[in-house]
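Before relying on records like the one below, remember that each one covers exactly one chain. Contacts with other chains, cofactors or solvent are not represented anywhere in the record.
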Amino acid sequence: MKTYCPKPDEVKREWLVVDAEGKTLGRLAVEVANVLRGKHKPEFTPHIDCGDFVVVINAEKIQVSGNKETGKFYRRHSGFPGGFKEESLAHLRARKPVAIIEKAVRGMLPHNRLGDKQFTKLKVYAGAAHPHAAQQPAGHELPAHATA
């Protein structure tokens, strides 16, 4: 018996809308990353991009547990002397709420070219409106097998 390996041309991609309102950041990010990778499909192959497109709406209403609102920091460095920047979750939510979900999901994808390609299928919007109605997204919830 041979193992089936899908070709990149054979992969059927669907569009899925996820409402982030009231959901916990890490739990939502895990579910979204799994759908982007294609782990919810029976023909999942780790080295092929077989995931679906995910549209996340209401990113500004994402929940975090504990004191992460003030205690979680996002850090970056420009590479120049004195170029260290640090920003709390509350400040990032006020400035760019989309980046919170994008950073969480990106950290759960592979850190290589395949992960970069999978990350481009993620679309995050701060409000409830999104411009992807023409793609006829499937629904407003993740599939039941992706939430387990």
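Strands lie at 15-19, 53-57, 73-77, 84-88, 122-124.
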